[in-house]
Design brief:
The chain is mainly beta and about 130 residues long. Helix content is about 5%, strand content about 50%.
């Protein structure tokens, strides 16, 4: 997985309001592997990669502020490991839609994102 983000795009209005020039303030980028991805795979699709959850936050002292919207879109690229996941028919990138509880196709193996990062996975036809 490759993620391209300009660090300046994480310095949002909310972050700038909380930033007081503290030396113990950080921007955190969290990339976590998901285990429950198979629960939400659409019919007729099979898993073609591990699922990842990407989130951003600003930590200042003991307080943490979630970064919900980037200033400009970042980019995520997932490459299929054809040894672990040999099914490569019509592989495309999907993002998990929280309100519906389903993965939504993004069209190719790379996509731009602007809000909250999200949960991403590669799916292919069965």
């Amino acid at each position: 997985m490759t993620t391209i983000i300009n660090v300046k795009d994480l310095y949002t209005l909310e972050v700038s309001k909380k930033d007081k020039g503290n030396k113990d303030a950080y921007i955190n980028i969290h990339i976590d592997r998901l285990k429950e991805a198979s629960l939400h795979v659409p019919r007729g699709r099979s898993i073609s990669s591990r699922a990842y959850n990407i989130t951003f936050d600003y930590q200042y002292g003991k307080d943490i502020l979630d970064i919900n919207t980037l200033l400009r879109p970042g980019k995520i690229i997932l490459k299929q490991d054809s040894i672990s996941y040999p099914n490569t028919r019509n592989t495309s990138l999907y993002r998990f839609n929280e309100p519906t509880g389903q993965y939504v196709g993004l069209g190719s193996t790379e996509a731009a994102f602007r809000t909250k990062g999200g949960k991403y996975i590669l799916l292919s036809n069965k």
